[in-house]
Structure formats: C-alpha cells, structure tokens
What we know:
This protein is α/β, with parallel strands linked by helices. It has helices spanning 13-24, 36-55, 61-69, 94-107, 123-128, 161-173, 189-192, 194-205, 211-221, 228-235, 237-250, 261-268, 295-318, 324-333, 341-348, 350-364, 374-382; strands spanning 5-9, 28-32, 71-74, 85-88, 113-116, 136-141, 150-155, 177-180. The protein has an 8-stranded mixed β-sheet with strand order 3-2-1-4-5-6-7-8, with helices on both faces. The model has no long low-confidence stretch (mean pLDDT 96). The chain binds 1,4-dihydronicotinamide adenine dinucleotide. Residues 9-15, 32-35, 38, 89-92, 96, 100, 117-119, 140-143 line the site of 1,4-dihydronicotinamide adenine dinucleotide.
Amino acid sequence: MKKISIGVVGAGTMGSGIAQLAATAGHDVLLVDVNDTVLQKAQASVQKALNRLAEKGQISNAEAIAIFGRIYFSNELKILKDAHWVIEAIVEDLKIKSELFNELEKLVVDSCILASNTSSLSINALASTCRIPSRVIGLHFFNPVALMPLVEHIPALQTDKEVLDTTLEYIQQWGKLSVIAKDTPGFIVNRIARPYYSEALRIYEEGIADFATIDYAMTSIHNFKMGPFALMDFIGNDVNFAVTKSVWEACFFEPRYKPSFTQRNLVSAKWLGKKTGRGYYNYANDLPMPDQENRILLSGIANRILYMLINEAVDAWYYGLASYEDIERAMTKGVNYPMGLLHWAKELGINHCLIGMEELHQYYKEDRYRPSPGFKKLIADLHV
Ligand code: NAI
C-alpha cells in the first residue's frame, strides 16, 4: 500500500478516531482542529486508546509509540497543503463544511481527494460548492471508529469513479468493510434503521406496552443486542431525534419517517438518555421490569417492528439505494443486527412479511404502513 499523507479536519469524537485508524494503517496523519482544547483532548484520547491496545497485547509498545508519532496535531489548516486526502469531520452544517472545502481547495493539490464524514448532509450539494466537484465523496464512519467495522462510501453525481475506487481500496486496507450508498437521506444504515426507533415509539404511544416490555420483545424474541429505548438512551435522544427529523424532512416529509412527540418531549425536557442520567429510563433507579409472560404481546410487538425494518430494507433495495449485498452488510456491520434484513425476510417467508405489512396497512389505513413494491419483485426474482 502506498503510504499517503492523510489530513483529518475536526479532532472531535469522529476525527480523532479516523486519525488513529489511518495512522495505524501506516499513514502520516495531519489532524487539524480550530479548538486547541479539543486538540489536546484528542492527543490524550488517542494516546490512551493506543496504550490500552498495547496493555492488551494487541499491538507492541513500540507500535503504539510509532502510530502516535505518525499523527501531527495542529490548529492550522495550511499544514494540509501536501495531503493526498483530507477527511472532514467537523460540525454537521452544510455552510460551514462548504466553507472549509473552499478553503482547502485553495491549499491542496488538484488531485487531493476531499471526503466528508457527514451523517446526513447531501454530498451532491457539498460537491456543487467546490471548484473541483469530481474529487468530493462521502465517507461515513461509525462511532466508535476503532470498533465499528463499517464505512459507507457515498459518491456524489459529480464524483469521479477513480475517487470512489481509491477510497474503496484504502478503506479495505485499513481493515474496514465498505458499502456504497446513493446520496439519499440517511444513506443506508441511518435510513433503514429508522423504524427500529419510530415503530417502537408508535407502539408505546398507542399504549400497547411500556418501554421495558418493547425493549424486552426485541432482545428476547429477535435477539437484537439492545432494545430500541435502551438504544435511543445510549445514542442520545437529541442525536437520534435530529437524525429522524433530518431524514423525514429530506425525504419530503415521508410519513414512514415522521418524528414522534414522545421523543421530542424528552429532548425538550433535556432527558437525553444515559449522558444526562435520564431518558426513557431513569438511570438513578433500578430499571423497570418488562412483562415477560405475555408471549403473544411480545411476539406481536417484535414482529411489527421487524416487518417495518424489512419493509424499509426491501424498499431501499427496490429503489437501488444500494446493492442487495451492501444492504445486508450495512445492517449487520453498521448496527449489529442479528441477521441481514433481506435474508431475514427470506427465512420468515417474503410473502409472510408482505402479509404482515398489508395487515398493518389495512388496520391503520395510513401511508406509513404501505408495503414496498419491492416485495413483489423479490418474490418474482425468487421464482426465476
Ligand atoms: P465533534 O463535535 O466531536 O467534533 C467536531 C470538531 O470539529 C470540534 O472539535 C470542532 O472544534 C471542530 N471544528 C468545527 N469547525 C471546524 C473548522 N472549520 N475547522 C476545523 N475544525 C472545526 O463532532 P463529531 O461527533 O466528531 O462529528 C463530526 C462529523 O461526523 C459530523 O459531520 C457528524 O455528523 C459526523 N458523524 C458523527 C458520528 C457520531 O456518532 N458522533 C457518527 C458518524 C458521523
């Protein structure tokens, strides 16, 4: 692998993780942030993470020192002038990201790839503000970068195929798994995962079950690692609500993605989850017990959420947001689902899942529950 010099702008949660990853792969990394305190924190956190790996014997002490030595921390953008790639991980704001890219284009060589780690903004829109839009690409890492194996590559309409190929080659060499997503709101993972949260909230709002019982249904019946409410509390309700709202708005107010008042109220009350000690659960107290006995209720809840997730995956596949394989990989590696959703549909019976959706649609008469036309295509393809 050619040793290239990688610039990372934004030394927060994501930027420091990306810098550590690239340095571990042997690259010289230039990590830039406008905030000196953040830079100092990044320095300390990368060093701590590397020391921990050395203590566990996953790398030697000499390697830890060498990796750390390859990262150069700076508050000056101009050190990026010779970078071959710059990965941006600054604040989630199109105007600010675009200003940064304009500044970078004055500094770097024309062949330098400009990647954005945005989780929700349009890469087409960002590229359109650049002098050379063909070098811009979305590279969506997951948090924490060191542990999460997935990276979504999002080429804009303007992106050169060569730029995509280069990022695919390097990300693979860095030990991560790539998927390619069209530039649509939420890309693959953050879009297909929406019903995990929104349908759980809807079930709660209908008074069907409490948070603990809905969580228990998903972990006990379908083996998800965390139930939806525990997961939202872990992610932070402010972050989860913002993603939901942004996907809903960017999808022209698609009813499937409509945010919930329950979650909005929690955000307004600053019950943001684990980080504030209170969210759906109050972490100062013992957590409430779920209703573990009512198997019919638990199965009904778990299947309803699963059908909605499968519907979303089938729809993404039908409309070509990503390939079949990438949709499967994204959900198992980006959010640790126990099985790829399309494979899951086949295991349950695609027609069975379609009927599940039709029954919900029939009952509620809401567009939110309309089955994807992709079910019929999946069934037809199976019989070819
Ligand atoms: P963060 O708030 O931890 O870090 C952002 C850093 O950018 C801050 O240290 C800030 O000082 C710096 N910054 C802001 N404007 C700057 C500029 N013009 N030049 C240089 N530095 C600047 O944010 P986080 O969580 O690391 O997110 C960064 C990006 O990654 C966002 O686009 C976010 O949507 C995306 N993302 C975040 C994930 C997460 O779980 N936190 C997951 C995947 C993507």
